Every structure is written in C-alpha cells, then in structure tokens.
Please model this.
Amino acid sequence: MSFRFSSHKELEGKHAFLGASKYHWINYDLEKMEKIWTNQFASERGTKLHNLAKMLIEMGIRMKDDGQTLNSYVNDAIRFRMTPEVVLKYSENCFGTADAISFEKRVLRVHDLKTGVHPGSPHQLEVYAALFCFEYDINPYDIEMLFAIYQGDEVFPYIGDPVRITAIQAKMKEFDVKIEKMKEVML
Model:
C-alpha cells in the first residue's frame, strides 16, 4: 500500500514565496526577506493597476484630472485614442507588450505606465517602436515617434530617434538569427 499524500488542490499551479523552487530565501535575513517580499507585492500591485488602466481605457472612462500617475496615463491614452496592452512581435524570440500605443497621421505614440520605484527608461519605449516598425513594415525615418513614461505623478516625454530605432532593429535581427542557430544545436 502506498503512502497517502494530502491533496492541496487549491495550491496547484501556484508557487509559494517561501517555496522550494525559490530556495534562495533560506540565505536571507529578515531585512532581505522583507525587501524581496515588498518587491513581489509591488509587482503584483503593478499588474493589477495595468489591468485596471486597460479596462478604463477600453471603456473610455476618464479619471479625475489630479496629476496622479494612473489618472494622467488613462486620460492621455483616451485623449490620444490609444490601444492598451498591445503585443508587438518581431519573432518568437523578440516581442513585447506596449502599455498603450497608437499610430495615426504618421505619428507613433507609445506610453508606459510605471507603478514601481525603479525609474523608467526610454529604451523600453524604443524597443516597442522598433518592434512596431518591423511588424508593420514602417521605416522609422518616415514617421514621428512620441514616447511618454508615467511615473511618480510625473510624465516624462521623449522624442523617438530613428537612428536609435534602426540600430535596435539591426541588433534584433542579429540576435534573433544567433538564437535560432543556437536552438538548432541545443534542441
């Protein structure tokens, strides 16, 4: 007769913060554990805020214009008729989800909602622009690119540089080819 293990169906597919597969916590002190848990909590909160923003944008529900990050992000996305959470793909190895994006009258807008404490970077928005241009066969030199990062109740605008976007595209191509060759050998 084999041993009868408890079922725990409610935990299937989940991972515990203090689980075996993330065993590094056994080397943490309380301060480090608290920092890591807080970061994970902030990440989960950020996911929920992105989902809320997506729903508000899709429904056209404007927020109180009080300068708060989420409100400014949602209101601007609605004002510029942007589409939230758009997956942009170059290949299986190179894709990403833009928080909010629009392309109208040769102007590409990409907005990024940052809910954490780490500062946002325009490089992420440049990658989205490169992906967009690849996917829709658009020359970065033929369009205007306007980016914005929403974080800490501020909006940080950037103008996209076609030189940088084409350099990122070249790197995407080069790295994608290399990854595919590596897959052939390793898989």
